Amino acid sequence: MKLNVMVCDVCKDRDREATSYRMTKQGKMISVDLCTEHAEPIEVLFEQVRASGVTPKRRNTRSAARVTTLEDIEKKKG
Ligand SMILES: [Zn+2]
Questions:
Q1: Cα–Cα distances in Å, from 3 out to 17, 24, 51?
Q2: Domain that holds residue 5
Q3: Domain count across the chain
């Protein structure tokens, strides 16, 4: 017997088994419980990310920033 019945946050159907999902959006953590039907869009996204070989993690945007060295500037001056 389950004391804490997790229900889907969308349909609130107690007969459906819900899974808890935690996501972070712009630093805010969102926790949602979703049944198989309503979790489908998320599962589809997971599969797409997995298929593309990308590990879902925080991207370091700073390292991607373009660095111009003094040497480059000197070269441009020619
Ligand atoms: Zn649902």
A1: 14, 28, 37
A2: 1-55
A3: 1
Distance 41 CA to ligand 1 centre (A): 12
What is the CA(16)–ligand 1 centre distance, in A? 7
Taking only the tens place, the pLDDT of each residue in 12-65 is 999 999 999 998 989 999 999 999 999 999 999 989 989 998 765 665 555 555
* Residue 49 to residues 56, 68, 69, 73, Cα–Cα distance (Å): 7, 32, 35, 39
Residue 27: predicted pLDDT: 94
For residue 65, how far is its CA from the centre of ligand 1 (angstroms)? Answer: 41
In a domain, 61, yes or no: no
| Ligand 1 center to 21 CA (angstroms) | 13
Query: Could you tell me the distance, in angstroms and rounded to a whole number, from the CA of residue 39 to the centre of ligand 1?
Result: 8
Q: What's 17's domain CATH number?
A: 3.30.60
